[in-house]
Amino acid sequence: MKMMKFLCFQLLCIILLSNIGLFQSSYHDYADALSKSILFFEGQRSGYLPDNQRINWRGHSGLSDGWMVKTDLTGGYYDAGDNVKFNFPMAFTTTMLAWSVIEFSEYMPPAELRNTLVAVKWGTDYLLKTVSQPNRIFVQVGDPILDHNCWERPEDMDTARTVYTVDAPDTASDVAGETAAALAAASIAFRSSDPGYSDTLLRTSTRVFDFADSYRGAYSDNSNIRNAVCPFYCDFDGYQDELLWGAAWLRRASQGESYLNYIQTNIKTLGADDNINEFGWDNKHAGLNVLVSKEVLEGNMYSLETYKASADSFMCTLIPESSSYHIEFSPGGLIYRPGGSNLQHATTISFLLLVYANYLERSYQTVNCGSVSISPTMLRRIAKRQVDYILGDNPKGMSYLVGYSNYYPGRIHHRGSSLPSIKDHPQFIACKEGSIYFNSTNPNPNVLVGALVGGPGEDDAYEDDRADFRKSEPTTYINAPFVGVLAYFVANPNF
């Protein structure tokens, strides 16, 4: 009887989460989607572009970044459809790309593994520059107010490239903690292919984490930069999670006992069991809990059991039969959270589902959600439903990955994509002269292949409107976890 109830529950979950009868599941070329999702990062590059740049409608940009502080701050990524380099989400993007390599490189075709490592390095090379001076971190390049008042190509931008700096004892635990995490994670990703670079990343990560922990506080609490980082990438959820996140990555990268002690002793004081149901550029709790749980599941560290309990609790929120189920889904099956840009939740949560499923499977364990036991296979099914929705199995039949399939958003909220390429139109286009392209109803002239837009809302509606940035703007931190997710399904389309 118990087995029959379990089988019935499994079938119920499949029906609820796949919306069988509403949308026909179709074949998806996960390898093609993976290739495109990695290519997107080349379209977001700032700095001097290499000869092998594949998105060839882009050109060099931001070549004087850092001159006003006598520091080379060229490179890195524009976070979204604008021309500002926000280091907080950029560091998270880099962490997630590196984590994708760490967990899923075995599933990646060799060429795409190389391309992913190139994308990681484009981020870490820049992040190393931002922490090149002791007890100082550069947290942003570009005045966002002036930038957002213009609609111009990055190659043309003539707005102030203001550099925003935090010096001790002023605080930047969030940005510094995430930067430490990115460098530590990347040190693992490069350990076999470039050990010298890996050592540099780990050594720098240790120093940056010390800065983050010694001067505790949020970077957006500093009056000299608050108006520049808020409301764009203000720290809304506190800096404590970034300290634990940075320490957890340093523990994994170095196996150092001091970092193990740090995440053990600060579980309560830094709130490891708070806000467990979020994961993104601002809130690291769910990802932190999954990351740390690896050591518990491997049978090594029962002192970290609180993290695993929180990871299990998060997984249960996604299971309809669980008493703690409460994460919302759109009628078409997309994970929904208020605030717009839904796909950032779908990609990060799918990533955690797959990582945790692998951890559980390797240790022959399941998740106990009260009276229900959840297998790794069930977690993977939830993730696959999100991936297939994004790629076209949704009420509109639209792929939200630009360039994938024959029907995808054509009017994305992105300056470089919507304006004529500097290669085709080398004449300068001034700040307000780009408005005619923003207001045009024509599709963007340059296809930003691989861009994941913010996506539809709670009702699955999407209008393909350039002005609706919450739905039509791509960001690096939506794409980064999707790289790892797609890599898994390249090798395991039916798992």
- What is the spatial order of strands in the main beta sheet? 1-2-3
Q: What are the secondary-structure elements, in order, as H or E?
A: HHEHHEHEHHHHHHHEEHEEHHHHH
For the record, give the distance between the C-alpha atoms at the N and C termini, rounded to a whole number.
28 Å
CATH topology: Glycosyltransferase
The CATH architecture can be named as Alpha/alpha barrel
Major β-sheet, in short? 3 strands, antiparallel
Q: How helical, in percent, are the residues?
A: 40-55%
Q: Report the principal-axis shape.
A: globular
Kindly estimate the percentage of residues that lie in beta strands according to DSSP: under 5%
> Given the structure, what is the number of helices?
18
Low-confidence stretches: 1-22
Oligomer: single chain
Which CATH class?
A: Mainly Alpha
